[in-house]
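Narrative of activities, Objective 1.

The group set out to show that a structural description can be obtained from nothing but a protein's sequence at a throughput compatible with the screening campaign. Below is one input-output pair from the validation batch, recorded exactly as produced.
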Amino acid sequence: MADEIKILVIDDDDSGREALTLLLRSAGYKVISAASGEEALDIIDREQFQVIVSDLFLPDKSGLDILQSVRKVATTTEVIVVTGHASAQTAVRAMKEGAFDYITKPIDFDELRIVVAKALEKQQLLSENIYLRNQLRDRFEFSNIIGNSPSMKLVFERMTRIVKTDSTVLITGDSGTGKELVARALHYNGNRRERPFVAVNCSAIPEALMESELFGHVRGAFTGAIKDKAGKFEAANHGTIFLDEIGTMPLHLQTKLLRVLQEQEVERVGSNKPVKLHVRVISATNLDLENKVKLGEFREDLFYRLNVIPLHLPPLRERKQDIMPLVIHFLEKQGRLMGRLNMTVDKRAFEALERYSWPGNVRELENLVERMIALTDGSVITMDDIPAGIAAEKAGGNFVDFELPGDGIDMEVTLRDLERKLIVQSLECSNGIKSRAASMLGINRTTLVEKIKRLKIGY
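Output recorded for this entry:
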């Protein structure tokens, strides 16, 4: 691939310039040369180069002038400066202003080859990072979070308002509703998009290791700590840390987390030297943190520190009108990945999917669509392709048809779920107008608002 690499050589010494040109061409690179700074700048305006090799001392412009001009118009081009003078100070200044490296005359051709190769390697890594960042940004655009229901429109509205801020966000919702997807969308569309996004699943880290994982440790802090290690907070510095399943964090670590959030600094395990932080914190939970506060299982002061901007993701059973656009989205996404384009779902199968209560939420729906694409022979998914448990669910989940199982039920939970379903249905039928929804339910508007807040319904 070397013949695709373009290098510009700038040197006012004819023999030196020709020698460098021949050397780099013999290595397989495409080389253009310039005898002065002005000539070089004219060429740079017209063409792009991966590497520029420039003498520091030119008759009309210095190598530093060339470097500064290149930095303005070609930020990914690597510049290697050459000096025939014993002027290490000037070469160091060039490095500070963005030169990749410097070499001295007489030039060691093997050294030059190595330096050019390293410059190209760095450039490729930078290009790959830019490509990956752009991919991530595209993947986590708001448009990739599907939802036309009133509750999801409220979620999008709040996300739009807070995306450019550094406010701490607490995302609540059942498992599978897309809490991490929302957290990543807030990061990759916000001011910190070029900085790290570090996701931590608090429930997946053993309690004995969690403090070290989050806050880091120094060598000798405990058995097995053979070297210093930065924690997740330091890794996320100047970016975003996403604390998933925050409700499972042990109480003694909640205290340290609260201090980190208050002081914006962290102390590694075994050290009393604070490390300053500038991190946006987004946390998520499928638990009722307010109830855990009442039970003494979660610190009240930490809850308020995390819950600056609350964002609740409704379960899929409460936004039935989103099922069809989600299915279409997943058919396109998974069909493209699996090489099965133009897959569709017939009317009866769609109706069955809309009747189902989706306890696993959006994640369950996406997994099902992937499975059906893989196992369906034709291009149309029918009732024969729908799992029996989903196809058999009755429309509306009518409570009158409910049969008491032999081992009994949790009456409080069952009645709460029924109340939630009725409130959501009334809000959907009334287009989110609470006074009209309250009238449909036979209660006053104030009572309805209190129930919406207590049940954390996203309206």
